[in-house]
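request received
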Amino acid sequence: MLHTPMEIKLFRKGDIAVVALIIVAALVFAYTSISNADNLQAVITVDGEIVETVDLSSVKEKIVITPDTQPKVVIVAENGEIRFDSAECDDKLCVNTGSLKKGGDTAVCLPAKTVITVEGADVDAVVY
Amino acid sequence: MKKTVAAVVTVIVVALVTFVFYDGVLNKTSEADFFSMKTYVTAKVTGYESDLCTDEIQKIVDNLDVNVLSRTAEDSLVSSVNKSGGGQLDIQTAAYVSLLLDVCEKSGGAFDFTLGAVSDLWKFGSTPEIPDPNALADALSHSGYKKISLEGGNLVMQDKSAVLDFGASGKGIALDSVKAYLETRDIKNAVVSVGGSTLLYGDKDFTVGIRNPEGNAGSYIAKLHMNEGCVSSSGSYEQFFEENGKRYHHILNPETGYPVDNGLVGVTIVSDSGLLSDALSTACFVLGIEKGSSLAAEYGCTAIFVTSDKKIYIEGDADIVEITDASYTYGN
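response:
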């Protein structure tokens, strides 16, 4: 079928709807990514398994977490920070690490195989 | 009109599928973390075979620990050598031991991997304490790299009470083993940390933080901007205890058996070799800035010394170091 010049348009209604849909989807995706990035998530793992995720940005009241570990550790999150509050291990390196409050902060209790990591490190690794 | 819509939709679908395939398969990232070698190990691998690699990395590090380097695992090669006062090593372990003996020699004994009996007395990692001076003197008299030698692949101990200890080199050796494996796989890049020792592998601009001696394990005072390589640190902040107001840390002077006290709080080494980065970080910590710099230069490594008065001294490629904590300044 031959088209008259009037019929040849770059975009039709249907096209515009598809493009608009894609733009909206992209904006929603971008917004979700950005708002997630703003949240400071602390992830607690025991022997490699995630046992708890704490959104530090929304923590106001004190939260006490006692994962099932041997030796026992007590993790406390409050005021946007998280720390090993006490531990029944010998060296207390985890407790001495202090409070974690920014992306990349990490505390490890080797005997209890427990790790707290605040997501969002801006370097590939920290050597120690 | 229908044709135009169909064409646009087709192009978008093809673009999406290509993007998802490219990003999801060829650029996929796989992460793993686990405990091995009495430390925390993390691996992040990007590329087509990343899943396979993170699984295999755990096996490699565990195997190296349990079957070769650990001196607490009963059936390891090192346990057997320590028990028997020597023994035959496999080719790979013999190569590592040969390079370690070279570091012992070139560092004038500042690095020494025969001090197991001495470090046992300090009980770092469990309930640390100041050892009895007589027991320490006795342990020292049976230690020292000059009491062992490598003849072919056979490790000979002249003093059978010497105790091999890979605590200051095992993590670096693990990085070398992992690197050798990764070289056989189809991946783009990887970051593998065994304790604080890190392998940066592949074609990427990496950024590595040097741990803040006063902060937690994730906070840093300076950044290293680098390509492929291995980075290790030794720091007095890592394991320590206090008694009568004095701090005792875990980096021992092989000459005295007591913690090194020379104004350094940390030394970081950048090298192509994991073993060298690990062993030299200890050696350079013990030697101090001047002699440590000479040793690092001899091996062609970059060394970053951090002092207790917050100065940073660099030997080697100073361009890679960027101080990010304003309370620290360049010393040289």
